[in-house]
Recover the amino acids of this structure.
């Protein structure tokens, strides 16, 4: 399945801090990389393991938009959450 689509990437600390960034014509991983650049610029370097990260497909009509959850692994890389 081709995952290249229009994705809206989101990040939240579960409290007050959040950020989102649309990434047209990208993969979920590419959308996450672009979002992380924005989050680091906005909030500085942090322990990202406490944050929640996800992408939601937009312009997916007529079907239901896909959602992919991510987490930060022990090496600081994004991996898809199960």
């Amino acid at each position: 399945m081709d995952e290249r689509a229009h994705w809206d990437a989101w990040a939240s600390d579960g409290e007050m801090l959040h950020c989102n960034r649309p990434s047209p014509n990208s993969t979920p991983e590419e959308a996450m990389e672009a979002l992380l650049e924005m989050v680091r610029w906005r909030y500085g370097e942090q322990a990202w393991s406490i944050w929640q990260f996800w992408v939601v497909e937009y312009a997916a009509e007529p079907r239901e938009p896909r959602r992919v959850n991510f987490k930060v692994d022990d090496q600081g890389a994004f991996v898809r959450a199960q």
Summary: The first helix runs from residue 28 to 43.
